[in-house]
Amino acid sequence: MLELKDYQRRTLNALVQFLEASRSKPVGDAYLAALAEQNRVSESYHDIFPDTPCVCLRIPTGGGKTLLAAHAVALAGKAVLDSDAPIALWLVPSDAIRSQTLDALSNARHPYRQALAHYFGDRVQVCALESLQTVSPHDLGKACIVVVATIQSFNVTDTAKRNVYSFFEELAPHFDNLPPSMTTGLEKVTEGDLENQPYLTTKDIGRVKFSVANWLNLYRPIVVVDEAHNNRTDRFFKTLGRLNPSCVIELTATPVVGNNVLYHVSARELRAEQMIKLPIVLAEHPEGWRECLRDAILTRDSLETLAQKEPDYVRPIALIQAMPKGGDATVEVVKQHLLDQENVPEEQIAIATGSQKELDGINLFDPACTVRYVITIEALKEGWDCSFAYVLASLQSINSAKDVEQLLGRVLRMPYASDRTQAGLNKAYAHIVAANFAEAASGLRDRLVQNMGFERLETATLLVPQQALPLVGGSGQGSPAAGGITGKIPTVPDCHIELPALPDTQHWPEELKAKVEIRPTSQGATALVKGNVDSDTLKQAEEFIKAGLPKRVQEKVEQQFAEHRAMRRAFRAPAQLGLTFTPIPQLCLELDGCLELVEKETLTILGDWNLLDFPVQLAGFAIHETINSFEIDVNGEKVKFRHIDAQQLSLNEVASHVSERDLVRWLDLEVRKPYLPQQQLQAYLVKMLSHLHEKGLGLTALVRARFQLAKAIGLEIERLRQLAMNKGFQGRLFEMTVPKLEDVAHFNFRFDPSRYPARNTYQGSYEFSKHFYPDIHDLKQKTSAGKDAEEFRCAMAIDAHPKIKHWVRNIERQEKTSFWLPTSSDYFYPDFVAELTDGRVLAVEYKGEPYKTNDDSKEKNQVGYQWEAASTGRCLFLFAVERDDVGRDVFKQLEDKLK
Predict the structure, then answer these.
(1) Considering the domain boundaries, does residue 118 fall inside one?
(2) Which residues, other chains included, contact 524 with Cβ-Cβ below 8 Å and sequence gap of 6+?
């Protein structure tokens, strides 16, 4: 099975936690609680279906959203339906995508089908709507059934005129002996059905319709909606309501109002996982399409020289977007230009348009393939994907170019989803016909946001200008072969602010007028602020330009200035300039005569524990049944079962067909951990079931509640493990040490210049000058009350200190890309990590008030100072607060620490 990336695991974890929470509290409350954990406090839940979870996962282009959907089917089945054989309705926007999805989910070798097989083995049935009648009632509950269909198949006003709502006698076995409580919401035969289905008679009016839609309604499918931004009509929601979904999971790169975005993956997260190439090296060409094409060829040639140094085969390809018929640079003209003027061999050129399909049947990954240039006009066909595409040359004007973002999406994909050894091959390249960099960047930025799912400010740091290309192919200093790095800070482009009218500048200071040029345009005016102005001048320019404008226009001006500041930060970021961050020593411990990094596996060993040494208990687990409900308590949270009727409630009186041994085996698979010997775990589970029987819980009741039982046992095992780990950790804490200089190479952490999975990036007006990366993760300048946020002031203090060389806003729960120290329960990620000008490193953990003994701050403080004490002066740790016990603010605390 294709291994999930960290951001994909986090996305699925967020989904599962939300779905589980929605069983014990109102769906809207569960959603807001999930958002609060992500510091998203200004959003609300759109209650589309009462009591039915309906959320959206926002995955940018290249993020693998279809693979996530395949995993989500099984996880949602457990979380919402307590089922390991759920029914899923997979809705797609077009028949072409329906065919592709059906093929992929049916193919045992495809990653999507392998994702399903990971949970269900061979217990999977994939079918189209028209073959649903072949599903037997005996298949239900034994296999996962995935029904793939287009949204249009269901999306009608008059259900009598669509097959999916028609009466099919073949479905009759599924509707036998249904209790009244389960037929209430099902469609009945009407007079309209008699007109379209002559074999029905007036006697059938009012009886339950044996239809595909009713079949789905009966079994409450998990509904997966691909490209969910396209479906926000009332008719669509009524359609979904007829199908009685257990939950709705929407996936899109570009959500709209009404999509309840539960989790958003950033472009930086994709880059950190080596899924896409970044940044996008952008070159504008005011001279026209010939110069654009020329430099695109030079770029591609330079990349091919680099590719020859790679251990894996890579053949960089340029995608050329020609003009439609009637333009100067049509497909035919471009091909002839390549042949005659650029001396490109004809076998290296392929045309992919609606009428010319020269890529059909060609494997572009084959080393024997000669194609290096693909000429197209609009979007390449759905499903076309070749990660060897590196260079986009759009010969159309950026203001009128259609589908340029779709082609750029092809160029962004990383070959083999793994970084190349040559830095230039980890970037994407775009050559655009535009008057200047600002116009080209603005045009691409709009497309990246609107059509590819990137955040607007994020895109400002993803687009960097290409340095001067050599006149002939090679690896000159400014060429891609040199990584686009010139060794000095590149010139920041001027800031272009679009305005609806000419501003009144008569009261502007003279020194500001000298820095800002006003140009009339057909839409109003452009204020051009020189790119080299200092931050105070830039702020002054923003205030004077905004003055007197309507609030809506002011907000647009603020956005444009914010984008420019983000771009300035990106241009100056040390990571972007090819600089490195010094290695940071980590905490180690000597075990059996060898030095080892103190990580989670080490902590488990330190615990030296055995499950069977603890008393067997399961506090907070109980089953409650009344005449019309079935609830389970797990640690104080009531998990509700929906649509319970008397027939189901009587099941506890019937002897279970599942034996005690079967239940133990099932629980063993569900709660197994790599640190637990299987024999020990199974013995513990046998003792646990005996304990629960003594509490009055019979085998059948436990089988019915097995998913919640597994969760409760898993929590109990983790509690016992934590007790042992706490004891072991505290007993060895003061033996932990920082490796000696000769051992640092084996026990250190390095900030990778190209991997920083930032989310909720900084958007403030204050310009930080020393942050190592272009983006700053999850840092807010102002509180809701309009005051400077406390962590922002701490960041200011670090950025302004003369002994700080550069610093990083450390990202929590990112063990591969962030610096961490061990605690007894997990890892501790200091809020800020800095390299000093003398080579030392500083870690800063910030709390708003002095730490309390009843939270984890005390342990973090102990661990941090042990790291400092064991480092012989190489490492410094500061537990900073807004104002400490002697009245020092965070600036003074930092100053005293670095004396």
Answers:
(1) yes
(2) 498, 499, 500, 501, 502
Dmax of the chain from CA atoms? Answer: 93
pLDDT at residue number 468: 58
pLDDT in tens, 392-419: 999 988 877 777 887 888 899 999 889 9
Residues 289 and 385 in one domain: yes
**870 shares a domain with 788:** yes
Distance of CA 892 to the CA centre of its chain: 39
pLDDT in tens, 184-194: 788 888 887 78
Based on the domain organization, do 368 and 234 belong to the same domain?
Answer: no
As a whole number, mean pLDDT of residues 483-512 equals 80
Spatial neighbors of 787 by CB under 8 A, at least 6 apart, are none
In 3D, which of 830, 839, 836, 838 has the Cα closest to residue 877? 830
Query: Burial letters for 759-786: b for 16+ Cβ neighbours within 10 Å, e otherwise?
Result: bbbbbbeebbebbbbbbbbbbbbeeeee
Residues contacting 249, CB < 8 A, separation 6+: 15, 55, 57, 69, 72, 76, 222, 223, 224, 225
Angle between helices 600-607 and 706-732 (to 10 degrees): 80
* Number of independent structural domains in the chain: 5
Q: What is the mean pLDDT of the chain?
A: 86
Residues 6+ apart with CB under 8 A from 672: 678, 681
687, 755: one domain? no
Instruction: Choose the final residue of a domain: 229, 244, 265.
Output: 265
pLDDT of 832: 98
Do 793 and 837 reside in the same domain of the chain? yes
Closest C-alpha to 88, from 8, 148, 151, 142:
148
Supply 580's token pair. 């490195």
- Asked whether 335 and 344 are in contact (CB, 8 A), the reply is no
